[in-house]
From TrEMBL:
<dbReference type="Pfam" id="PF02878">
    <property type="entry name" value="PGM_PMM_I"/>
</dbReference>
<dbReference type="InterPro" id="IPR036900">
    <property type="entry name" value="A-D-PHexomutase_C_sf"/>
</dbReference>
<feature type="compositionally biased region" description="Low complexity">
    <location>
        <begin position="227"/>
        <end position="241"/>
    </location>
</feature>
<feature type="compositionally biased region" description="Low complexity">
    <location>
        <begin position="264"/>
        <end position="278"/>
    </location>
</feature>
<dbReference type="InterPro" id="IPR005844">
    <property type="entry name" value="A-D-PHexomutase_a/b/a-I"/>
</dbReference>
<feature type="compositionally biased region" description="Basic and acidic residues">
    <location>
        <begin position="328"/>
        <end position="337"/>
    </location>
</feature>
<feature type="region of interest" description="Disordered">
    <location>
        <begin position="200"/>
        <end position="337"/>
    </location>
</feature>
<dbReference type="InterPro" id="IPR049022">
    <property type="entry name" value="AMG1_III"/>
</dbReference>
<dbReference type="InterPro" id="IPR016055">
    <property type="entry name" value="A-D-PHexomutase_a/b/a-I/II/III"/>
</dbReference>
<comment type="similarity">
    <text>Belongs to the phosphohexose mutase family.</text>
</comment>
<keyword id="KW-0460">Magnesium</keyword>
<feature type="domain" description="Alpha-D-phosphohexomutase alpha/beta/alpha">
    <location>
        <begin position="51"/>
        <end position="91"/>
    </location>
</feature>
<feature type="domain" description="Phosphoacetylglucosamine mutase AMG1">
    <location>
        <begin position="460"/>
        <end position="603"/>
    </location>
</feature>
<feature type="domain" description="Alpha-D-phosphohexomutase C-terminal">
    <location>
        <begin position="624"/>
        <end position="688"/>
    </location>
</feature>
<dbReference type="GO" id="GO:0005975">
    <property type="term" value="P:carbohydrate metabolic process"/>
</dbReference>
<dbReference type="InterPro" id="IPR005843">
    <property type="entry name" value="A-D-PHexomutase_C"/>
</dbReference>
<protein>
    <recommendedName>
        <fullName>phosphoacetylglucosamine mutase</fullName>
        <ecNumber>5.4.2.3</ecNumber>
    </recommendedName>
</protein>
Length: 696
């Protein structure tokens, strides 16, 4: 069965690699990868005692001709790093060897079936793989291929339909939450019990060319209304082909192409990650067979600041007191009732209601104009629209599915890299004083607005991080914890210099991480409480269990002492933790927190923007055949190879007031990226150009 399946989806000649953000390539190259990743997902689930894993079919902000896969690990974060190599090896194995590669992975990872064979899935634990997809035309067909593979290994494939990437992370996290800490997996699970015989497979309704029809066993589907899928055309970059081109030119024979042209705009890809290394170690430390659940040290808190008196269910799972701050971990997961799309909306709207009590809900706040990049964020925002309206938050969803080409002329990547307003917001729109843009799978967010003097201004991931940072510091000061928390805001070299200076001024540490959210997430886990954001708008805030425990204790103490402001601050921070996605950056939960903070402060977007003034900056990229010819220090701010380059860049920086520049090889494209900032835009542009010239 497995061999037949592998052979029916032959591997393309292009090399495929599990990059920072999973696999990404032209959709027509991905059948074999989807099939094989469906198989791999089963092994990953088995290796964690049958806990669910997620498989997201998306190419994030790439053009509509691309697609891809992001695998979601059992704690709701990205696939553990060690498995990324297995994924790449399996995806690239020749067709006649793929089964052996799969068997080797299964044996090494303790994920073989009962008879020692990969396919012996009848032996416990039975794998569970939740497959979701974005709105691309080919996503349904590709998702069906993954589900077919899951069925072939007798795993339980669940068709989650169309979701944002962070929604799938959320569902996996909450589905497994208590289980990941040691509870036995119930059979059947509470929420996903529909049978393939009686439900409609929407993905197959969309499919016309699937080689393997719905007879595939073990597929379970969640009933949901059909979603619209639109086709569109685009010019996209085939990263996998770039990879194979670059392989033809090893580092010893540099074959770099030079940039005889002005700076180009970025077209890279995004990632949703979590601390992969910690997931691994957590999993080793707390295997399903050795329950490691600690008991609730506090009753569930009642958040009573608002009319919406809500129970913070996520804290019912609180398990943290025995874990010292030096080993932050993430076991405060909400109840399994939240392990669904509806549960996601419920959790977020409750948290928002707690954070923004009715008294703070000003009726004269204008609506937020949301650019959904013509992607999956649009239907999901529409699903929340009414509930948000009831909380005093008016949103207008623009650039929905079918309104134009996905991620083209709209969306977070376009807005942040091109520094241009999205389609539909090219000029001041009457009635809208602020707007935001999501990317194609709704894990990135940037804000923007038109000033009174008709200047369009961008508030990027750095500005969001600054807003969150000052809000957290203000609330922490009011909560007066017995023992101060270590609080940080993690940035990359792309963070605007003014942002770092502002955040440091708040009294926070500002560690630097390599580009790519999994690196930021990993760094953030070293702190009790950490904001992390990439300038491109991907980020979140992580609360360690130590922080949650301290806040619960503070709230209880303050209430006992009748110290209402202190109790309210602790409660506010706990509600923030409930609102902000603890697994990955999430455009929907991020915009809700931005809106909550603005509302609480009575701020308009211009007051937020005024927290600090961005230093003018410019990004560009140099297409190269061999990006590895450039190597940098670990923080990516200085070039180590070729050795003569950094002294040249140092000399250039010295020529400009507040000049800073760096170059680094992209992790997702065959380009070298150039970043420059300086006191004026003209100088930043000039420094970028000189840096590019020095580099090629
Ligand atoms: P590369 O291509 O390595 O620069 C890009 C983004 C990252 C991250 C990854 C994930 C920039 C400058 N780079 O990485 O932030 O989103 O894609 O795919 O935005
Ligand atoms: Zn994305």
């Amino acid at each position: 069965m497995v061999v037949a399946g592998i052979l029916s989806y032959p591997k393309p000649s292009a090399a495929l690699s599990y990059g920072t953000a999973g696999f990404r390539a032209r959709a027509e190259l991905l059948d074999s990868t989807l099939y094989r990743m469906g198989l791999l997902a089963v092994l990953r689930s088995r290796s964690r005692g049958g806990l669910a894993v997620g498989l997201m079919v998306t190419a994030s902000h790439n053009g509509p001709l691309d697609n891809g896969i992001k695998l979601v690990d059992v704690e709701g974060g990205m696939l553990a790093t060690a498995w990324e190599e297995d994924a790449t090896r399996l995806a690239n194995a020749p067709d006649d060897q793929a089964e052996h590669v799969l068997a080797a992975i299964a044996a090494r990872r303790g994920a073989a079936g009962g008879d020692g064979e990969v396919a012996g899935g009848a032996a416990p634990p039975r794998a569970a793989v939740f497959v979701a997809r974005d709105t691309r035309t080919h996503s349904a067909r590709l998702a069906a291929i993954a589900l077919e593979a899951v069925g072939v290994l007798e795993g339980r494939g669940v068709d989650m339909g169309v979701l944002t990437t962070p929604q799938l992370h959320h569902i996996v996290r909450h589905h497994n939450g208590p289980l990941a800490a040691g509870e036995r997996l119930p059979h059947p699970p509470t929420l996903y019990t529909t049978s393939s015989a009686t439900t409609t497979d929407l993905s197959l309704q969309e499919s016309t060319s699937l080689a393997h029809p719905p007879s595939t066993p073990h597929r379970e589907h969640l009933p949901r209304p059909p979603t619209l899928y639109t086709t569109s055309s685009a010019t996209t970059t085939d990263l996998s082909l770039q990879e194979s081109t670059s392989l033809a030119h090893p580092p010893s024979t540099p074959h770099r192409e030079h940039l005889p042209r002005p700076p180009t705009l970025y077209t890279t890809s995004s990632a949703t990650t979590t601390d992969l290394s910690l997931q691994e170690s957590t999993s080793l430390a707390h295997p399903p067979s050795t329950p490691h659940r600690e008991h609730l040290s506090h009753p569930p808190i009642l958040c009573t600041t608002s009319s919406a008196t809500t129970t913070d269910l996520s804290l019912q799972e609180s398990t943290s007191l025995t874990h010292p701050p030096s080993t932050p971990h993430r076991e405060h997961v909400g109840p399994r009732e939240w392990a669904s799309e509806e549960g996601y909306y419920e959790m977020l709207t409750r948290a928002y209601a707690t954070l923004v009590p009715p008294a703070a809900r000003s009726s004269d706040r204008g609506p937020l104009w949301i650019d959904a990049a013509c992607g999956v964020g649009a239907p999901k925002l529409l699903a929340m629209q009414e509930a948000l309206l009831a909380l005093g938050l008016r949103v207008h969803v623009a650039n929905g599915v079918g309104d134009g080409e996905l991620n083209s002329g709209c969306g977070a990547e376009h807005v942040q890299k091109a520094r241009l307003p999205p389609r539909g917001f090219e000029a001041r729109l009457a009635g809208f004083d602020r707007a935001c843009s999501l990317d194609g799978d709704a894990d990135r967010l940037v804000y923007h607005y038109w000033t009174e003097s008709n200047e369009w201004k961008l508030l990027d991931g750095d500005k969001i991080a600054a807003l969150f940072s000052c809000f957290l510091m203000e609330q922490l000061a009011a909560a007066k914890l017995d023992k101060p928390l270590r609080v940080a805001c993690v940035q990359t070299a792309y963070a605007n210099g003014a942002a770092g200076a502002y955040i440091r001024g708040l009294g926070m540490e500002v560690p630097m991480a390599k580009t790519g959210v999994k690196f930021l997430h990993h760094e953030a886990l070293h702190f009790d409480l950490a904001v992390y954001f990439e300038a491109n708008g991907h980020g979140t805030i992580l609360f360690s269990d130590a922080a949650v425990s301290a806040l619960l204790q503070t709230q209880a103490d303050a209430e006992a002492q009748g110290d209402a402001p202190r109790a309210a601050a602790a409660r506010c921070l706990l509600a923030t933790k409930q609102l902000i996605n603890q697994a990955v950056g999430d455009a929907i939960s991020d915009f809700l927190l931005v809106e909550a903070v603005l509302c609480l402060r009575g701020w308009g977007v211009s007051q937020w923007d005024a927290l600090y003034s961005d230093l003018p900056s410019r990004q560009t990229k140099l297409p190269v055949a061999e990006r590895a010819a450039i190597a940098t220090t670990a923080d990516e701010t200085r070039v180590t190879t070729p050795p003569a380059l950094q002294p040249e860049l140092d000399a250039l920086m010295a020529r400009f007031a507040r000049g800073r520049c760096f170059v680094r090889p992209s992790g997702t494209e065959d380009v070298v990226r150039v970043y420059a900032e300086a006191a004026t835009q003209a100088e930043a542009d000039e420094l970028a150009l000189l840096t590019a010239q020095a580099t090629h």
